Structures are given as structure tokens and as C-alpha cells.
């Protein structure tokens, strides 16, 4: 249920702020939106937010982008969804484009990398806060906590595919977590799925058709690949990074492995969804092929085919989310996914912390398990110092998020190369 209906100026201000401060990948972004939309402004209530988060986890594409789009749609309809989604994506897209252009021209951006190193260390604390906030509200019973634990173990210890984990959580929730049916909600657009899908898919494919007619083979191949990637990106970019790297580096040869690693590092430490790594890859691939002009065209095309589907899925299917509350089994499925999401965030947090606080991960075999754990000898003192400082500022002294991130970025610039 929507608790308040904000004015357009408030939508601009709040979602603009979220877009600028959305560092750290989906876990941190989900936490930031929860803080802004549920805890501080109460524009969405807890149940609606968690239900929407579970729903977005079931859709292909970056779940944080879709969650922002859903929140805007819930507050102000389709125009609100467009505005919230764009404000979430565009600040990071602008930063990635600038960094990609600088990278292509000069081969690296060391000072920017140092600043974002500090930000990345602080993001660990934001993710921990996400676990604390969402876990307290989503894990209402021992069975919910069991779902969260099993999803964490399935991802971290067994390495099972993300879609399989979410599907198992949905099936388990339908069987063991059915809830009492809620009163039938007021219709919010049922019956409009086919027209919305038709318009959205035409808009999505129009640039590809134009490129095919114009004989632009390079851009067409790029657009088709990232369109396919958008359809299989369940659970965000982490789920498809290995596949994307293999295809763009080995199969197509658009960029080198070192460039792909740099692309991921920059995408992880800039605002916006991690899947913006596709924009960096698109720009570098185009610039390598024919200079910055083609780089710009490639970046724009990858952004279009990556994010247009996010709006299409939300506008087509979000109106059914309230209806799900009238179906106990479906509501139980979403409850199972909601509980599993806590385990997913825990896995992402551990993965992120391991790669930030340590310089090397090592494979550890333990019976049927094959884990990758941090090497204690490779601990990064600078990252630990910044993370601890950020933890004190955010969790102990409760300083504003912008201040914590700014201080961490400055510390990263000062401490780079000091240890």
C-alpha cells in the first residue's frame, strides 16, 4: 500500500539522490532505496517494498533498476516509473561514459580509481546495513530464516545457478508459506499486458531493425548480443558476468581480458546498476573498431537494449502484484523468494567484501563443496581501514550517507599506494 503520494519535485529530488548515491551494486542499492522510500519518507510500506523486491528478483534484468521503476510507477503511475527508472540509471551511465572515453583515450584513470577504491570499501558497510534492515523485517519465522540460510548455502557453498535457487524458493514458499488471502484490490490496469508488451518490444527492437536495414553489421551484432543478455540476466549482472566475459573477449574479440577486468572494476565503484558494465564494453568495442564516434553509438545502443526491457516488464506485469496478494499460494511463493533474497544479499555481501578487503581469493575444497575464500595473507590494510571508518560513521554515529561516501572517497585518494 502506498502511504503517501509525493509531488513531482519530490520525485525528482529523491530518485535523483538515489541515482547519484547508488554505489555498490544491487545489495547496497536495495538498502539505499529501502532507507529513502520506506524508513525515512514512508512513501511505500514494508510489505509492498518486500513484495516488489521479490517480484523484481523473478524478472530478467537488473533488479534494482526494476525496483526503482516499480516504486516510481507505484507512486505516480507510468510517468513516475519512467522518471524514477531514468534517474536511477542516467547518473551512473554518464559517469561510465566519461570514464570509458578517458580510458579509451589515455589507457587508465588512476586518481578516479583511487577515489572509487575508497567508496567501494565503504559500500561493504552499506551492504551490511542492508542485511540488518531487510533481514529484521523479512525473516519473520524460523521457516523464513531457513529459506534465507538455504539460499545462501546454495549460492555460496554449492555454486548453484541463481534462477534455480529463486525457483526453488518460490516453489517452497508456495508449499510451506501460504498466507491468508487479502481482500481483492482495486484494479491497476489488468488486461493491458498485450498492448504494453507490443509497444515495448517494438521500441526495443526498432534500432536493431534500422541497423539491419542500413547494413551496420558491427552495431547489429553488438545490439543482438546485449539484447540476448538482457533476457537471461536473472538476478542482476553478477549472474551473467562470466558468460558475458567469455563472449565479448573470446567469442567476439570486442575487448581484451584486461579491459574487461577494468570495466567491471569501474562499474562496481560508480553509481548505478552494475550492468552498466555493458555500456563501458560497448564504448570500448566501438572505439577500438572505428574511434570515439562509433564508441558513442555503441554505448548508446547497449544502454537502449539493456534497459528498455526493464520498463517493459514493470509496466506490463506490476499491475498484477496486488492481485497476487489475493492468492495464498502465489503470496507464499513471493514470501519464499523474499526470505531467499536475504540469503542472496548475504552471498553478494560476502563476495563483494572478499574482493575488496583482500587482494586474492583461493579455492578451498571440502568434500562435495568447492569454495573460494579470501587469502588472509592478501588482506588490504587500506581497504580495511576505510571500511572500519565507514562502519563507525554510518552504523555507530549515524552520519548521512553522502558524508560517509565522500569521506571514504577522499580517504581512498589519500591512502592509495600508502600500504
Descriptive overview:
The longest helix is centred in the first third of the chain and has 44 residues. This protein has 419 residues and is mainly alpha-helical. The protein has a domain of 98 residues. The N and C termini lie far apart (50 Å). The chain is built from 17 helices and 2 strands. The radius of gyration is 21 Å and the shape is globular. It has a two-stranded antiparallel ribbon. Helix 9 runs parallel beside helix 13.
Task: Outline the fold blueprint.
Elements: H1 8-21, H2 25-40, H3 46-57, H4 63-106, H5 110-138, H6 142-156, H7 162-176, H8 193-214, H9 217-232, H10 241-251, H11 257-268, H12 277-290, H13 292-317, H14 321-324, H15 328-357, E1 361-366, E2 369-374, H16 381-396, H17 401-415
Antiparallel strand pairs: 1-2
Helix pairs in contact: 1-4, 2-4, 2-5, 3-4, 3-15, 4-12, 4-13, 5-15, 5-16, 5-17, 6-7, 6-15, 7-15, 8-9, 8-13, 9-13, 11-12, 12-13, 16-17
